[in-house]
Amino acid sequence: MAAYSIKDIAAALGAEALGAADLLVSGVAEPAKAGPDDLALAMKAEFADGLAAGQARAAVIGAGMDWQALGLEAAIIAPRPRYAMAGVTAAMDAGPAIAPGIHASAVIDPSAGIGEDAAIGPFVVVGPGARIGARARIASHVSIGAGAEIGDDALIHEGVRICHHVRIGDRFIAQPGAVLGGDGFSFVTPEKSMVEAARESLGTVENAATDQSWTRIHSLGSLVIGDDVEVGSNATIDRGTIANTEIGNGTKIDNLVHIGHNCRIGRDCLICGQTGFAGSVEMGDRVVLGGKCGVNDNIKIGSDVVAAGSSKLFTNVPSGRMVMGHPAVRMDLHVEMYKALRRLPRLARTVADMQKAVFKSDKTP
Questions:
Q1: Which of 21, 52, 57, 179 is most buried (CB neighbours < 10 A)?
Q2: Options 165, 258, 261, 334, the catalytic residue
Q3: What pLDDT digit, counting tens, does each position of 91-144 carry?
Q4: Catalytic residue list contains 261
Q5: Mind giving me the DSSP string for 54-84?
Q6: Mean pLDDT along residues 253-271
Q7: How far apart (Å, rounded) are the C-alpha atoms in residues 45 and 35?
Q8: β-bridge partners, 28
């Protein structure tokens, strides 16, 4: 296992190293579980309390913390500790063990292009005309469809499916089981369906044909993913119907997220686990959607929107708004609504007492 000096880690982070800066560490750990060769992550006072239970000689600590009083031989002072944690973990992460070159069991179409220094693992299938960038690392059982393009420095974990003609930028990361560019879920009936009638009438359905079958609308568009995008395990992103589905640069997509056909997602968005998008959603930049959010079809979400977990977005959301609830409303309004909801039982008892008093007074001579 590789070892790193405290001074080199601090230099990579742009942070300050104190004490025995030449001390070597080979891993990171929580303070109470750290061994003598681990760098403990004790960025807050409550975390530092665990150092006494562990064996760490060095730690990342926050500004103003006394490393010597904590019994450390060396420390890295991080003004923004959680940001420093990103750098430390990146330096320590060797990633999956994928041997250089192309594994003998991989099936690469002769017309496919493989970039310089790419590493392709066992049982990978690369279709005709596909292009894989330089230094890409592709783990076992990945399939890459005909005409797909993947940029430089990609890391594609086990079992990822990249469908035909999908285009992906540089430094892409896909976690195991992600499916990118499958057909959209788009079907139509010969006559107006119950779904259309219900939407138009808001539930008062009239004159809708019921004895009919669904006919597929084929997906002729593709999926275009920008640079520095990450997609989590078992996430799915559908290709477009006619136009492309698009994911902007720097966007991070968590496990089990579904993004439907024709969606256009902006730059540097954060989409948390189990969030689902219906089709044709337009979303701006730097949007954060908490876990289990639901996004209705054909709506627009502005930039810098934050939606709390389990929010259901049924209508357009203007830029900069923070929303919560089902249906999603402004966070401050939702808090007031929730407070009012909690007061309902007491209000009901008050109304019942008033009714009794009124009925009683009616009977009084």
A1: 57
A2: 261
A3: 788 788 899 999 999 999 999 999 999 999 999 999 999 999 999 999 999 999
A4: yes
A5: S--SEEEEETT--TTTTT-SEEEEESSHHHH
A6: 98
A7: 20
A8: 39
